[in-house]
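in:
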């Protein structure tokens, strides 16, 4: 196990290093001159050049990257061009909103997806199986921003049950969490159903039934434990995707999270903020997936043996 974890740590470090190179390269491909944005469109060339030197944009790219990487390792992601505040502080101020929505969406998707998937497997080829499959297909196929707008129109503007924008009370989290978790819930439901059907056809499950075990006991003690092994990997992967997917949801519901911060930074050509938020979200995604791999290996020891 220690060898497996060590290998995953090395792979995580290489993935984070590659992420930093990708983010830095992408930022320098964005059209527009940050120095000109800071100076203003009417500023003279001397002023723009002076600001470019102050921001370090006149240095070679490899020097800029080395400086960016060294500072990032110390937790320094630079200073926002737009607000003048440290990027890391602004991200940490906004992150609790994004984390709350992502965790809520993951919990909703996991619980709802697993329960409906188990019901569909137990009622195979019957009404509830078909109903779950249709609903999960709709959930997977519906774009998040469209679903968010529809939920806002129905439950906020028409029925008045939940607030439509902002994030001040627990009720403000309901619609964004449902919007974010719907797609993942559909995916987890279909995967749980498939895994359960596969396990329910195994010899040891039939043997348990032949011994006279109750159906609930067969499902919980024999089938569910083994069926959930592949589901764990998809839950971890989905959490990282939900964290990155909050960009659209936060924009629809006007939530001041990291996703909204990234959108505003792109619009203002605030490249230190864009660079910092992209690196932060990508790093969280990589770390979460690495932790999921380790958890997967703990639950299923065969992974440690077969993994290269």
């Amino acid at each position: 196990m220690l060898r497996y974890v060590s290998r995953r740590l090395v792979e995580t470090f290489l993935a984070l290093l590659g992420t930093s190179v990708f983010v830095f390269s992408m930022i320098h491909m964005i059209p527009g001159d940050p120095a000109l944005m800071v100076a203003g469109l009417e500023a003279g060339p001397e002023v723009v050049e002076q600001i470019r030197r102050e921001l370090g944009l006149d240095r070679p790219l490899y020097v800029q990257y080395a400086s960016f990487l060294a500072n990032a390792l110390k937790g320094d992601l630079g200073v926002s061009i737009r607000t003048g505040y440290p990027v890391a502080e602004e991200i940490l101020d906004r992150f609790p909103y994004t984390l709350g929505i992502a965790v809520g969406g993951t919990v909703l998707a996991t619980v709802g997806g697993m329960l409906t998937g188990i019901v569909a497997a137990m009622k195979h080829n019957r009404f509830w199986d078909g109903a779950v499959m249709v609903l999960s297909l709709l959930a997977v196929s519906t774009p998040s921003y469209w679903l968010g707008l529809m939920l806002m129109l129905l439950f906020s503007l028409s029925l008045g049950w939940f607030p439509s924008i902002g994030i001040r009370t627990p009720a403000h989290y309901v619609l964004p969490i449902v919007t974010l978790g719907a797609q993942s819930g559909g995916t987890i439901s279909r995967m749980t159903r498939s895994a359960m059907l596969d396990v329910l056809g195994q010899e040891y499950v039939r043997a348990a039934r032949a011994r006279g075990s109750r159906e609930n006991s067969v499902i919980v003690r024999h089938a569910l434990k083994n069926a959930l092994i592949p589901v764990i990997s998809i839950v971890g992967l989905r959490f990282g995707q939900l964290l990155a997917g909050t960009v659209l949801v936060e924009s629809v519901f006007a939530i001041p999270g990291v996703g909204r911060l990234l959108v505003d930074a792109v619009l203002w050509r605030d490249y230190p903020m864009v660079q910092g938020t992209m690196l932060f979200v990508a790093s969280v995604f990589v770390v979460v997936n690495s932790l999921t791999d380790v958890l997967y290996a703990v639950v299923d020891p065969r992974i440690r043996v077969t993994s290269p």
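note: The mean pLDDT is 80.
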